[in-house]
Amino acid sequence: MYNYKYNFEQNSQHRIEILEMSDEKCKFSFEGDLSIANAIRRVMIAEVPVMAIHFVDIIENTSPLSDEFLAQRLGLIPLVSYAADSKMYDWEADADSIDDQKTKVVFTLRQKNLNDAPLEITSQHLEPEFGQVGEMAIRPVRMFSPINGKEVGIPITRLGKNQSVHVRCHALKGFGKMHAKWTPINIATFRHEAELLIDHVQAQQLSLFEKQSIRDSCPMNVFAMDANQELIVNAIEKCVFCEECIRCAESIKKPRLIKMQHKKNKYIFTVESAGQLKAVDIVKQALIVLRKKVDEISQDLSFAQQYQQI
Ligand code: SF4
Fold it and tell me: Hey, where are the domains in the chain?
């Protein structure tokens, strides 16, 4: 378990504790109101800004894909977006003095197949025009072969002999509410945390074999045996409410041994990133966006109260 806790404010009823963390996946427990939990989930899906290709200038396209199809495929390539904060939305830029680098990143794709064998065109062929480098660069998410681990890129199209494609792609900042290509999330779900109560009177009557049967009946390894060979709940956050343990207790004629219920105001979130941002960064960004919205609402409310008093 990760020793990471996020308290919203001193004395706040809301708390976040990270349970699992990798670049792609973040699992955390959230303690607080259901409506706030749902707001965090919705903001993660729809309002965390990332970059995506939005306009494509087709200069030449003799590939098997039509222009519209090609543009649509380019738009769905996830772009690493750590630097999205440094970009403006295109509607924020001054129309008279649009500085491309402030609002967008431009990629060029220019390939021609001169061989008999087909040429696979992938996201690796997209060249940034503004010479971005380093980990923070806005670039296509890297994809690796599950067979040999080599970088293969995200497939775009395939060129036959003498076919060519030459396009300029304009990547803009946006968020999932505008179009699904701007959502940084594959999955964002939450569920109640379970509360398991073991009846100690019945537990005293169990043989060692029966205790081990209950421990092993759980597919998520929620139970363990302590040093005194007593059955204990060891990892409650892993419980998925499958009720296998209860069925096992019934089969050994101890139907009241385990009582299971939802823990009030405690939820387990699972967030999987589509690659533009690390999963934990999506959570942090969502909290920042939500905080900003709440601040705006409270400012509006205090203004409305002042107005009523006049
Ligand atoms: S309900 Fe399922 S996951 Fe939860 S403790 Fe029982 S067996 Fe394990």
Answer: 5-47+187-271, 71-182
